[in-house]
């Protein structure tokens, strides 16, 4: 896949269970991005900073700005 893929920072998963539940919300903690092809490339990993020591959203925005230029 070489297209931009957007994903939510939170997702409600209760509706996918056999016995649906309310308020079963998961928060995105990290993403892994591969640049290259099936024979090689590089991986970039971005993980949420649970201690608030960095700018999570800023790094994601930087990646997409770089990719679109």
Question: Overview of this structure, please?
Answer:
With 69 residues, the protein is of the alpha+beta class. It has one domain. It is built from one helix and four strands; from the N terminus they run E-E-E-E-H. The strands form two sheets. A two-stranded antiparallel sheet has the order 1-2. The chain is extended. The mean pLDDT is 82.
Task: Give descriptors for this structure.
alpha+beta, extended, 1 helix, two-stranded antiparallel sheet, 69 residues, single chain
Along the chain, the helix and strand elements come as EEEEH
- Helix residue percentage: 10-25%
Radius of gyration: 15 Å
Q: Approximately what portion of the residues adopt beta-strand conformation?
A: 25-35%
**So what's the overall shape?**
extended
Domain count: 1
Tell me the span between the first and last alpha carbons.
Answer: 18 Å
The multimeric state of the shown protein is single chain
Structural class by SSE content: alpha+beta
Strand order, largest beta sheet: 1-2
What is the β-strand count? 4
């Amino acid at each position: 896949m070489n297209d931009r893929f957007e994903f939510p920072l939170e997702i409600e998963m209760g509706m996918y269970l056999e016995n649906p539940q309310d308020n079963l919300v998961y928060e995105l903690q990290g993403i892994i991005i591969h640049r290259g092809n099936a024979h090689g490339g590089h991986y970039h990993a971005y993980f949420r900073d649970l201690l608030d020591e960095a700018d999570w959203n800023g790094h994601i925005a930087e990646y997409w700005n770089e990719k679109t230029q």
